[in-house]
Amino acid sequence: MHLYDYAKGLVLEAGNNLRQWMTEALEIETKSNPNDLVTNVDKAVEQFLVDQITTTYPQHQIIGEEGHGHDVASLEGITWVIDPIDGTLNFVHQGENFAISVGVFKEGKPYAGFVYDVMRDTLYHAKAGFGAYQNERLLEPVADTALAQSIIAVNANWLAGKPISPVLEPIVSASRSTRAYGSAALEIVHVATGQLAAYMTPRLQPWDYAGGMIILNEVGGVATNFLGESLALTHPNSVVVGNKAVHEEIMSQYLQPQHDFLTALHQKYHVKK
Ligand code: 2AM
Ligand code: CA
Q1: Within this chain, do residues 134 and 151 fall inside the same structural domain, yes or no?
Q2: What's the pTM?
């Protein structure tokens, strides 16, 4: 079977399993801090994906949030970058608004992206060079917008007393309004559908954006870090995604003037854990 069709089927199957497993008792643990949660379902979904992929494609590399491949440094061959549940807090507190996110890379270059909004049964998917889809519907190229007429996504946590807050506040003030969905993968695909004009966050891990950025690329959206660099897959990044025009406006008017400050912040936030 073609790798793209295999990956698509696998993500849908993982979502089916997830919907079943979440009806059973949830075991919740904390990771780096009391608000950083992981459940038995996050772990089981990642294990399911890893077991299936390694059985079918033993030579493929896998980087997964819940413990797989965190020491991967070279992106030779095929690399899968997996978040079994993006939006774990939403999963635990809301039972919805989370996604399975999978990016597949060939020699470090985008090959295919999948973001599965599990409870809405909506799969965003793209094979690089062949357009992006929401289920069966081909997505249109994203329209350019000006920040003043844009809804942007930013988590309010970053606007309250953080070193980055004074950089983000003027962007928020200049926008039409803000939203926060609590799943980076879903926020990125909502930029791809045009529902959001941009999404910004100072710190994400590669598995949070790997799938979404491939989908967004296919509709002409732009994804970089706050320094305007492309998003790396082997360490955390700041992330600003948007339609081309609003991304350019945010970069040139708000982020480039803070280049030295943002470079220093990167050194603090983006060292590999
Ligand atoms: P997660 O649910 O897979 O942990 C919430 O605003 C978004 O940020 C989610 O996509 C969440 O992914 C991600 N996130 C939460 N804490 C994070 C951290 N410490 N570093 C990077 N990403 C994080
Ligand atoms: Ca996760």
Answers
A1: no
A2: 0.97
